[in-house]
Amino acid sequence: MLNSILNKEKRRITLDRIMVTDVDSPYISTDPEDIERIATKHFQTSAGIPPDNVSIPSDWLSDFDPKDTIDASIYQNLMNPILDSEYLSIISNLLNNKASGPSFITYEAVQYAGPLCRSFIIRLLNAYIYTTLIPNHWRHTLLFPIPKPTNWECSIDKTRPIVLLEIFHKVLSKILTLRLSTIFT
After folding, report:
1. Whole-model pTM?
2. What does the domain layout of the chain look like in residue ranges?
């Protein structure tokens, strides 16, 4: 209703056709294989193709060596088990009405989970920390092309990606980032 009153159009992309430009004369394809190939290539290379042989410049090598002046014991709490209070602090600050990741578990579902569910989640996250292994499915995300302010015209170049990650991946990342931030300060 608000969009109608304000004369705003909700812009969205349906990726059922795509402009093929890797041939002599560009054309629009509706072949799902072409769409997948072109979209995948575009989003994998849109930030630039990293060089194959990435090495640290020799001038910087000394900056990456362990420093004798830094006490390594300051990092000892980084991989400690997650406490209930720490977990509650993180999930209470998650924003509501956000899109879920591949599992379709929302922030609200995690925030309103009971004590038994919360203890299972904390136990699971602690297992990831203890084993230093993360689930393979955390490597999979949902990527949605969002139109830029110009008309989309079936050109993947006129989109920007939004990536939805798994919620527990984000929670664990937030906990570790907060711990590192505390160490650094």
Report:
1. 0.72
2. 2-45+77-184
Tokens at 29, concatenated: 């394809």
Length of the chain: 185
Q: Which two tokens stand for residue 114?
A: 């009971």
Please enumerate, as own/partner, the contacts of 95-104 that have beta carbons within 8 Å and a separation of 24 or more: 99/164, 100/164, 100/167, 101/141, 101/142, 101/164, 101/165, 101/166, 101/167, 101/169, 101/170, 102/137, 102/140, 102/141, 102/142, 102/164, 102/166, 103/137, 103/166, 103/167
In tens, the pLDDT along 9-64 reads 677 788 888 888 877 888 898 999 988 888 888 888 877 776 677 778 888 888 88
**Radius of gyration, alpha carbons of the chain:** 22
pLDDT digits (tens, 9 = 90+) for 19-29: 888 778 888 98
